[in-house]
């Protein structure tokens, strides 16, 4: 398209130049035509006046000619000498002889003349008129006048000619400058086009890069799930107890469920997920949301809820709502590398959505803030200011799509250095009676819920599996794949409980880690997982909680609760 | 052709002897030409006759020259007939449009003038030949034939003279 425009431009240019020249030429031709016409009219005028002069002379000379009064005739003729324009005049008798006349320019008068209408010869106009009285031919009158010389006529037209030429010149110059401007315009347009193409190409490559990351991430997640599922199946093969087999089966199902959820989230990105709207009062979901955010945010980031009483119900797809909140909160986390507070508010906003009642949910942080340019583009898919591998630019895009699908709006505001606020507005539901008060899992034992658990497991499949189980219980999981990594995490993060594998490669195994931790902080509960009995005795002797692999969710819950209680008792 | 026939018919009535006896005087051509041209400078009352008659008294040579001039020509849209008058036919003068008095027979010409009093007849008298009493009179000056005009006489004959004729005249009697 821009190529076609570029191809068209020179043609338009030519055309414009051509028109300017044409106009100029037209003007000149027109003025020449007018001048010529005037010239013709002038000559006609002169011819007529010469004819009239001749017939006046003829008529006044008639008497003298008839009765042979040569003196009178000479007088008549000589009267014409005073007229500067008349070069020669003659009166001829009926038979043809010249009776009287004169010639100023030396050209002798013709000896005999035949009657003729005015005619031009060179720069002279001559006429021969009959002299008649009452139908009786008495003789002829001859007159010769000078046509105005060309130079004189030209000088008369010179002033007009100069003006016409100037006008023509002006047209041409205007046309040329117009063309030049068009040319400059075209070049500018070309530059803009080129820049736009470059930008589009860049955007495209960014999109591809982001897409690659997304796919990579999804593939990785799926891989973990598949590994968890296959290892579960493997364990099921070895397990003999039906109850254990059942529990392993559940673990596999969980993994598959998680995969399904992942797919749903992907579909949500692609805006193809079937919406499952529920009528909900957000205030009732604080616990669930706390859990969700704790898991996703770092420990140096605290979340504070500020939910108004008597909040109106709204209609949203809850899983999408969770993802949206998560996406916003994760952005806040990323904007606060040194930690800070994320404040989540919810309040009624009467008439805020095009006159309709709405509920506003705001997420404010104390992070780096956001500039006007990023504000303009923040909701665009694939817009990110983060480093490659850090962000895909799809987070706020999901938020945007979700709020629109819910009939609401979303906006982002902020000042660089002063934090950012994202505000979602949802229309108030028309079905207050159908409110579904979404809560947390009712059967989760209280001590485990919201617990910050440091999971130390070298086997990534198991690490994933156990991590999933912990999350199912409502714990916040901090994962490490070695004792050293665990100590690292402990230095950075507040941990309520350590759940570690017993046998691990490297200098330090699970028991070593437990001993080290007891040395540092005697109160931190530690539960050790082991698949093999030899080491179990030592561990229990030293008073560590023990979890035999494989284990199910219930066993896990019980062991963790015991360890917490023991630690609390002191 | 018709004019020629008439003039021949009229000529037959003329006394041929006097016409052929006098040799043509040198002024005859000029005077005949003047007489012929005069018609164009005078307007006669009424629709005018079918034949335009120019009557000549006393000068057969002028009558002959006129006949030659008027041959196949018109005057005021009418055919021209030339007639010579003498005493016997003095009464006929009333039928002429132009009456030229050549000054030959004074008594006869007096009768002719009497016959045309108040009639629309342009009387032309050759002054040098002793004739007089015409609306227009011919006379010689410096070898050229000149005109004298009597405007009162013209009115008496109910004739209108062209101003050009008056301009061309050397003497004008109001
Ligand atoms: N709380 C915030 N503080 C500062 N900037 C923000 C905040 N939220 C979003 N932004 C800006 O908006 C951009 C787009 O955010 P979005 O969540 O869509 O993508 P992302 O966070 O970069 O990547 P992704 O969420 O896909 O991992 C961010 O890169 C960032 O520049
Ligand atoms: Mg994001």
Features:
heterodimer; A: 570 residues; alpha/beta; Beta-Lactamase; Heat Shock Protein 90; Rossmann fold; 3 domains; five-stranded antiparallel beta sheet; five-stranded mixed beta sheet; 17 strands; 21% strand; rod-shaped; B: 174 residues; two-stranded antiparallel ribbon; globular; binds adenosine-5'-triphosphate; binds magnesium ion
Quickly describe the structure.
The complex is a heterodimer of chains A (570) and B (174). Chain A is of the alpha/beta class.
How is this structure best described in words?
- The complex is a heterodimer of chains A (570) and B (174).
- Helices cover 52% and strands 21% of the residues of chain A.
- Chain A has 13 helices and 17 strands.
- In chain A, the strands form four sheets. In chain A, strands 2-1-5-4-3 form a five-stranded antiparallel beta sheet. In chain A, strands 7-9-10-12-11 form a five-stranded mixed beta sheet. A five-stranded parallel beta sheet of chain A has the order 14-13-15-16-17, sandwiched between helices.
- In chain A, helix 11 links the parallel strand 15 and strand 16.
- In chain A, helix 1 runs antiparallel to helix 3, helix 3 runs antiparallel to helix 4 and helix 6 packs antiparallel against helix 8.
- The two termini of chain A are 77 Å apart.
- Chain B is an alpha/beta fold.
- Chain B has one domain: 3-Layer(aba) Sandwich (Rossmann fold).
- The N and C termini of chain B lie far apart (41 Å).
- At the A-B interface, helix 1 of A face helix 3, strand 3, strand 8 and helix 7 of B.
- Magnesium ion (MG) binds next to helix 6 of chain A.
């Amino acid at each position: 398209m821009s190529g076609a425009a570029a191809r068209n431009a020179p043609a338009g240019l030519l055309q414009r130049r051509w028109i300017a020249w044409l106009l100029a030429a037209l003007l000149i031709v027109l003025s020449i035509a007018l001048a010529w016409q005037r010239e013709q009219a002038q000559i006609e005028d002169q011819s007529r006046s010469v004819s009239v002069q001749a017939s006046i002379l003829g008529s006044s000379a008639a008497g003298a000619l008839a009765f042979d009064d040569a003196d009178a005739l000479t007088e008549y003729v000589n009267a014409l000498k005073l007229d500067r324009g008349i070069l020669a005049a003659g009166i001829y008798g009926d038979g043809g002889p010249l009776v009287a006349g004169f010639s100023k320019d030396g050209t002798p008068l013709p000896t005999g003349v035949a009657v003729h209408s005015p005619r031009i010869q060179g720069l002279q106009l001559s006429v021969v008129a009959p002299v008649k009285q009452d139908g009786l031919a008495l003789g002829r009158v001859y007159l010769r006048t000078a046509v105005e010389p060309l130079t004189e006529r030209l000088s008369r037209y010179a002033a007009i000619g100069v003006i016409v030429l100037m006008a023509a010149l002006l047209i041409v110059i205007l046309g040329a400058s117009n063309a030049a401007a068009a040319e400059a315009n075209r070049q500018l347009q070309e530059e803009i086009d080129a820049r736009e193409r470059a930008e589009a190409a860049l955007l495209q490559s960014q999109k591809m890069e982001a897409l690659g990351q997304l796919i990579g991430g999804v593939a990785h997640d799926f891989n973990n799930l598949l590994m968890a599922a296959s290892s579960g199946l493997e364990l099921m093969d070895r397990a003999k107890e039906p109850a254990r087999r059942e529990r392993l089966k559940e673990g596999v199902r969980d993994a598959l469920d998680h995969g399904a959820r992942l797919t749903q989230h992907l579909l949500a990105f692609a805006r193809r997920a079937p919406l499952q709207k529920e009528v909900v009062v957000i205030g009732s979901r604080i616990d669930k949301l706390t859990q969700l955010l704790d898991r996703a945010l770092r420990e140096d980031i605290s979340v504070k809820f500020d939910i108004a009483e008597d909040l109106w119900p709204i209609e949203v797809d809850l899983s999408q709502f969770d993802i949206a909140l998560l996406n916003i909160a994760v952005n806040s986390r990323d904007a606060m590398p040194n930690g800070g507070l994320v404040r989540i508010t919810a309040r009624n906003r009467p008439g805020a959505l095009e006159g309709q009642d709405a509920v506003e949910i705001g997420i404010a942080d104390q992070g780096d803030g956001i500039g006007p340019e990023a504000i303009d583009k923040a909701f665009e898919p694939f817009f990110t200011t983060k480093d490659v591998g850090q962000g895909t630019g799809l987070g706020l895009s999901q938020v945007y799509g979700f709020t629109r699908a819910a009939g609401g709006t979303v906006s982002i505001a902020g000042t660089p250095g002063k934090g950012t606020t994202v505000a979602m507005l949802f229309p108030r539901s028309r079905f207050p009676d159908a409110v579904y008060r979404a809560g947390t899992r009712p059967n989760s034992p209280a001590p485990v819920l919201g617990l910050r658990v440091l999971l130390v497991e070298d086997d990534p499949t198991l690490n994933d599996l156990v991590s999933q189980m912990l999350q199912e219980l409502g714990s916040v999981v901090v994962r490490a794949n070695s004792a050293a990594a665990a100590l690292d995490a402990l230095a950075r993060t507040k941990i309520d409980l350590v759940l570690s594998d017993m046998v691990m490669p490297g200098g330090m195994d699970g028991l070593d880690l437990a001993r080290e931790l007891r040395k540092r902080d005697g109160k931190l509960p530690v539960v050790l997982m082991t698949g093999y009995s030899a080491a179990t005795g030592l561990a229990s002797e030293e008073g560590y909680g023990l979890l035999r692999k494989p284990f199910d969710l219930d066993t896990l819950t019980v062991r963790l609760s015991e360890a917490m209680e023991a630690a609390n008792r002191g | 052709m018709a004019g020629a026939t008439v003039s021949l018919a009229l000529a037959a009535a003329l006394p041929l002897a006097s016409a052929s006896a006098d040799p043509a005087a040198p002024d005859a051509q000029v005077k005949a030409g003047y007489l012929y041209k005069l018609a164009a400078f005078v307007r006669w009352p009424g629709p005018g006759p079918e034949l335009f008659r120019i009557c000549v008294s006393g000068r057969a040579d002028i009558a002959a020259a006129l006949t030659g001039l008027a041959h196949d020509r018109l005057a005021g849209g009418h055919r021209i007939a030339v007639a010579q008058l003498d005493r016997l036919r003095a009464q006929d003068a009333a039928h002429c449009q132009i009456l030229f008095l050549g000054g030959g027979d004074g008594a006869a010409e007096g009768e002719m003038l009497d016959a045309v009093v108040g009639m629309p007849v342009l009387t032309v008298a050759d002054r040098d030949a002793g004739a007089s009493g015409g609306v227009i009179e011919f006379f010689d000056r410096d070898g050229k034939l000149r005109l004298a005009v009597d405007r009162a006489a013209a009115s008496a004959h109910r004739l209108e003279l062209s101003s050009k004729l008056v301009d061309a005249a050397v003497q004008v009697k109001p």
